Amino acid sequence: SEVFSSVDCPVLILPDEITPQLPKQIVYATDLEVDASHAVEKVIALASFHHAHISFVSIKKEDSPYTAMD
To answer: Which DSSP state fits 63?
Structure first.
């Protein structure tokens, strides 16, 4: 818990028995209700760094006025 209180970035904690692997596929899901351009830039940078493929998924809430994208 000290790590979480001392950093201002996302943290991924893995158990000792897990062997970390580089991501090959990253999925970014959004409801498109807020400007997430900063987050998208970070996802693109992460994927570029690891030579991973990105899939963007639009999530529509049931009560949302937005329509699905083709």
So the answer is: T
